[in-house]
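Aim 2, interim progress. The first record below pairs a target sequence with its C-alpha cells.
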Amino acid sequence: VEGSRAVNRSADLSIGGMYLDTMQIYEVGTAVNIAFKLNNSDAKPLRLLARVVHFDPGVGAGLDFVDPPRQARHLIRRFVESYVLDHER
C-alpha cells in the first residue's frame, strides 16, 4: 500500500482484487493506491487504485481494484491462470 511504512503480503489475488495480510487498520470504503509485482523479476510494479471492501482486524483486508487498466487486467489474468495450471499438476 503506497504511503504506508509496512510491507504487506497478498494472500489471494484475482482479476478483480486481492486479500492483503496486514496488521494495519483500514476502514471499509477507503481508497488506497497499491503497488505490487506479480513476479520478482518484473522491472516495475503494477500500480492500481483499490477500495477496501472487507476488513478483519489483526488479519487483513479485502481490496477490490477500481477501474484497472486493460493491460493490468491482462497481466493479472495471465499470472493467475499460469499459477492455477502449475498447481493442478
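The second target in this work package is listed in the same format:
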Amino acid sequence: MTALDPKVERPELLSPLALAFVGDGVYELLARQQLLARGSAPVGQLHSRTVELVSAAAQARAYRLVAPLLSPEEDAIYRRGRNANSTRSPRHTDPAVYRCATGMEALFGWLYLTGQVARLEQLFQVILAGQEGTP
C-alpha cells in the first residue's frame, strides 16, 4: 500500500472519531487489497468477504490479535478511539464490540496519517493470519 500524502499536521491532535473516520477507509482498503492479492473472484464474493473482515465484530477480534504487539503510543491511540463518545448508536452490534472497533479504526487512521504504512501492513498481516478460517 502506498501512502498518499494526507497533509495533516500533528494527527495526534485530531479527535479520536476523526482518526476512526480515516481508519475505517484505510482498514477496508487493506482488506480489499489482500482479497484481490489472493486472486480473482466474483465481485459479490469479494464484497461479502470484505464485509466479514471489516465488521465491528471482526475488528474487535483483530484487536485481540494485535494488542500484545502494540507500542504504548499505539495502545494510547487505540484507547482514545475506544473511549470516544460517538453520537451514533450501533444497530445489531454490542456497544462494547462497537467501541473496540472504533479504537481499531482510530489506530489505523493514526498510523496512516503519520505515514506508518509498513506498520499498518504488519498489523494487518497478523490480523489476517489470526483470522484464517474464521467465517
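The chain has a mean pLDDT of 87. This observation will shape the mutagenesis plan for the next reporting period.
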